[in-house]
Amino acid sequence: MATPYHxxxxxxxxxxxNTLTQHQAFKLHKFSLDFSYGALEDAVANVQIQHYIExxxxxxxxxxxxxxxxxxxEFENYYVLPNVFYSHDNVPSLEQVSLKCFLFNTNPPCDRPxxxxxxxxxxxxxxxxxxxxxxxxxxxxLESLTIVFCHRLLNFKASWCKSMRLKHLVVxxxxxxxxxxxxxxxxxxxxxxxxxxxxxxxxxxxxxxxTVFRHRYYPYVKNFDTRTWLRNxxxxxxxxxxSWFSELLAREYEVSNNGWxxxxxxxxxxWFGPLETECNLIALIDFLVHCPSLEKIxxxxxxxxxxxxxxxxxxxxxxxxxxxxxxxxxxxxxxxDNVKKIIVHHFxxxxxxIEFIKHLMQKAVVLETLSLTYHRLELGxxxxxxxxxxxxxxELVQEKIFxxxxxxxxxHISFHDTYHKLGF
Length: 424
Hints:
There is one protein chain. The chain has 424 residues and is an alpha/beta fold. The chain has a domain at 217-424: Alpha-Beta Horseshoe (Leucine-rich repeat, LRR (right-handed beta-alpha superhelix)). 24% of the residues lie in helices and 25% in strands. It is built from 11 helices and 22 strands. The strands form 4 sheets. Strands 1-2-3-5-7-8-10-12-14-15-16-17-20-21-22 form a 15-stranded parallel beta sheet. Helix 1 packs parallel to helix 2. The model is unreliable at 1-6 and 308-332 (pLDDT under 50). This is At1g61320/AtMIF1 LRR domain-containing protein. Residues 20-374 form the At1g61320/AtMIF1 LRR domain. It holds the Pfam family LRR_At1g61320_AtMIF1.
């Protein structure tokens, strides 16, 4: 049962109420509520929300999703999650729960364990450290936990979850001042972190996949040692990063004249652009050629167009011969010995992007597939006045890509294209 109303009127809420009252089934597979702030302005609406949640749980619902959409409101005005969510006799039936824009009371009455709950998502909720820690002790079989844009959290440890089945952790948008994140659960097989929170990662052999997206590399953050937790991920098989990583690699060259050569088990590398300088490009290529097990590279240039503004950061092309540095000032030659597939998303055809692809193709000696999606942007007068440039024509870009030299004689290039207008 779903209620996809974003501006529900009193008459619509009455209709929903009457419909649920007449519902005779003893069990529900899924129940979803999506209410806007306008639907919660009066006490009657608040009572109805509680009634809806109680209705769903009383029907032994397995998948429960509740969103109250309190946009631009103070935390104190968020709807308080009713106690029935914690204490109803049918709580053990819940398998998946997603809650958006709720205020959690401190130390809620968790009378029954969520014995079947496997997936949990908190989005834009207000919850403190102690309350979250207490809740997570009541999910004995939890496998997936997602925390997005939550408020009042200052610390979070994955080990707060007492489930030994916790495999997947996602933490996004947790830029609360002073927020600390510890990845320390021995059962985890993957985690994704999007944001600039202070991270620490224990040395966990169970983690096979890690994704860390940050706005940029911060070399001087107090009590935040990027090098340490990166070394603790050296065994992963899939690693996803954004531009901060190439900034880190470039700085390592600048400071120690050396690179990172410890990801010996890495099979899939995912990188979210753009490349800001040619130093970043050189450092990133050098990192890749020192990943001996690497088989697949996935690239996303989604924000390259904003980096190509002429007055802010001119597009670059490497004019001098491209070499890596082995740490003693002597150029060395490295190859991507096992890379068979390269996938490129949101390719705009800028010079810096073409340079990246060109050098990958010159290094990948057994490459079989280059799959590239050209994302052509046509920019309106306002964007042009800000210094942005429209993407080159598809035919020109396609010709450029197909003319690139390759180290592999068996590579197949798959060229797709999409078209977008901005500022018209």
